[in-house]
Amino acid sequence: MAKQVVTRTYTASIRNQQRVSDDLDSLGFAASKLWNVGRWTCNRVWSEIGRIPSHAELTAYLKSHERYDDLHSQSSQRVLQELAEAFNGWYGKRRNGDTRANPPKYRKHGDEHPRSTVTFKAAGFKLDTQYERVRLSKGSNLKEYWSDFILCEYKTRPDVDLSTVESVQQVRAVWIGDEWELHFVCKVEIEVSDAPGEKTVGVDLGINNFAALAYEDGHSELYPLNCLKQDDYYFSKRIARCDDSDSDQATRLTQKKSARRTHYFHILSKHIVQRCVDERIGTIVIGDLSGVREDEENGESRNWGKHGNLDLHSWAFDRFTSMLAYKAGVEGITVERVSERDTSKSCSCCGRTRKANRVERGLYVCDDCGTVANADVNGAENIRQKVSPSLACDGGDRSNGWLAQPSVYLFDQESGCFAPREQATS
Ligand SMILES: [Zn+2]
């Protein structure tokens, strides 16, 4: 066992809710106003100079704005940082070909005051773990003669003890629809297992097979994630039938769809990590899609949404990768992200990239060495080799066709987990 420091967020309810909610409301409203001022400023700058200002530029520009002093300076800074991150997320989606992505919106909530999350960094809060209280600083504009902070009495889950964590980095006040709650972002020391082994596995994420795995010894696995396709199809149809895409019903269906997706990602990442433990893997090598901006072939941006019914964008793969990295980390397995460049085009057996090499019905065919392999497995093996080069092929035990027969794992509705195809009932 080894020790490792990781970041964890613990939620806590506020015991003196009635007493502090008005104060938190005004901070949440102030954060929304500052967001809107920032959003409006971005538009202005955009029409003046043709680009969105960076977080640093925006902060420098708005520091003297009246609304900036409604919150503690670090909290205001954080609001503008979130805005900059939202813009970056939007650029990222656009780059990856998501033409339907929208820039960050203004924060409104009917005629009511919107309550944005307020973040308090080191200088903005004071934690008393003995009495389970935390002081949250107000901005100078909202200070009253008798107080410049809000004193919240909090209650964490029984298994969480904030006095034992390494450090509390941030406190966030979050409106959850009917009341405020607190999120403590902490550095925590955890025990991690020693790696189950030293072998490597390559993981290629994609549309047809959500994940393809190529193990060092040559065997491979495919995860088509048909269940997700069926779910997406079902929910998309029901959402399309709603009269109004902003209606409560449409929102509920969209939330349900997203929750089901998260559920599959959790189960699949858990399953893959367990497979890695069984196979004595020390390192998972995974393709980093965020580095791929354009299709290498034709220079056009990738559009994931075009493939079949499945509407998956690069952020979905990013999310899956973080889940996998998190679960692997607990088992002592390292996850390395490598660029996907050329991994779909070269032959994982002889290493050659030739125009004549092609993909036919999901099979990669190499004219040079005669390899015929599942195209996604070939990609996964190329990804794996970026970290651990192959010794096989030149007389090793990888005879021609060694990658041709992957095991296929399907989601089994009955057991709620992934099972090899012959065992799955659905
Ligand atoms: Zn070849």
Concise synopsis of the structure shown:
The protein is α+β, with helices and mostly antiparallel strands and 426 residues long.
Give structural notes.
By secondary structure, the chain is α+β, with helices and mostly antiparallel strands. Helices cover 33% and strands 25% of the residues. It has a seven-stranded antiparallel sheet with strand order 2-6-7-1-5-4-3. A hairpin with a 4-residue loop joins strand 3 and strand 4 (133-137). It is globular and about 80 Å long. The two termini are 39 Å apart. 30% of the residues are buried. Mean pLDDT is 84; it is low at 291-310 and 393-401. Zinc ion is lined by residues 347, 349-350, 352, 366, 368-369, 371.
Write the layout of secondary structure elements.
Blueprint: E1 2-14, H1 17-49, H2 55-62, H3 73-95, E2 118-121, E3 125-128, E4 133-137, E5 149-156, E6 167-175, E7 180-192, E8 199-205, E9 211-215, E10 220-223, H4 226-241, H5 248-278, E11 281-288, H6 314-330, E12 334-339, E13 358-360, E14 363-365, E15 372-374, H7 375-385, E16 407-412, E17 417-420
Parallel strand pairs: 8-11, 10-16, 11-12
Antiparallel strand pairs: 1-5, 1-7, 2-6, 3-4, 4-5, 6-7, 8-9, 9-10, 13-14, 14-15, 16-17
Helix pairs in contact: 1-3, 2-3, 4-5, 5-6
The protein binds zinc ion.
